[in-house]
Amino acid sequence: MAWHSIVGKSFTADEFERYVGSLEFTGWRPRFAVVHNTSVPDRKTWDGWQARRPPLTDDKWGQNLAGYYKGLGWPGCPHLFVTPGSILTMNPLTMAGTHSPSWNSISWGIETVGEFDRDLFTGSIKDNLVAALAILHTAVGLPLLPYERGVQGLHFHKEDPRTTHKSCPGKYIVKADLIKAVQAEIQRRNPGEHPADEGGNFGVVKTAPNDPLNLRETPSAKAKIVAALNNGAKVTVLGGKDVGASRWLNVTASGKSGWVAARYVEIT
């Protein structure tokens, strides 16, 4: 397959949020995100790059990465490279990349600078990864939980049954702790959330017996319908959002995620 173009631009977390907000996910949409570590470079190597005069910037590294992946004959590359200094966007977020043997066509690939079997997962590298995950999951309504391998929830590269990277992203990145941090960051970046709508709550669809509730891709009555939820269907609440005078809930149900009108869900 022919190599497609990359973005190759680094962002601060707030700049990345604005960038993602400018995108339209009308074609390809991921089912989940996969967290990787780079291993090479590890943190010591990356820090050494910053000591150069002039330093190796993340944007310049992105150009080098593009040449490397293109030379491999791959059609794309991981979507993000999260560094201690920025969130480097490589593969377009609106199309499939190349990063994990089983899940290239259905997931975002997020590389994190470090070898986290020995590098500690702290400081700005943690902050940038948490922010990137929070922004991406909010943008398209992806659930962090519940996890089902190859279907939904936050994934680690080592969970791919076909990968040879059996420890990636490393023992110092603990998934449960990472998810809690991302949930807190989602809440911080979306301060208008109602307490009853916080991620992790559960709800039951309350509609007329023969009038299913539409699960939609985005919080809009005109958005594409993902599924129809019957009265009594159980949902996991991921968050909420006010759109005009309407309240919407981001939920997952029966392995699918999307948005529903809040007035038809009873929080349990």
What would you say this structure looks like, in words?
This protein has 2 domains: 9-189, Lysozyme-like (3-Layer(aba) Sandwich), CATH 3.40.80.10; 195-267, SH3 type barrels. With 268 residues, the protein is an alpha+beta fold. Helix 1 runs parallel beside helix 4 and helix 4 packs across helix 5. Helices cover 24% and strands 24% of the residues.
Short description:
The protein is an alpha+beta fold and 268 residues long. The chain has helices spanning 13-21, 43-50, 58-71, 123-140, 175-189, and strands at 9-11, 32-37, 80-82, 87-89, 107-112, 155-156, 202-205, 213-216, 225-229, 234-243, 246-253, 256-261, 265-267. Helix 1 packs parallel to helix 4 and helix 4 (123-140) crosses helix 5.
- Principal-axis shape equals elongated
Query: What is the helix/strand order?
Result: EHEHHEEEHEHEEEEEEE
For the biggest sheet, the summary is: 6 strands, mixed
Residues in helix, %: 10-25%
What structural class should be given to the helix and strand makeup? alpha+beta
> Widest sheet: strand order?
1-4-3-5-2-6
* Terminal-residue CA separation: 49 Å
CATH fold name of the largest domain, please? Lysozyme-like
The total count of helices amounts to 5
Assess the beta-strand content as a share of residues: 15-25%
CATH architecture of the largest domain: 3-Layer(aba) Sandwich
* Total beta strand runs: 13
Q: Identify the CATH class of the largest domain.
A: Alpha Beta
Which key features would you list for this structure?
5 helices; Lysozyme-like; 2 domains; 268 residues; SH3 type barrels; 6-stranded mixed β-sheet; alpha+beta
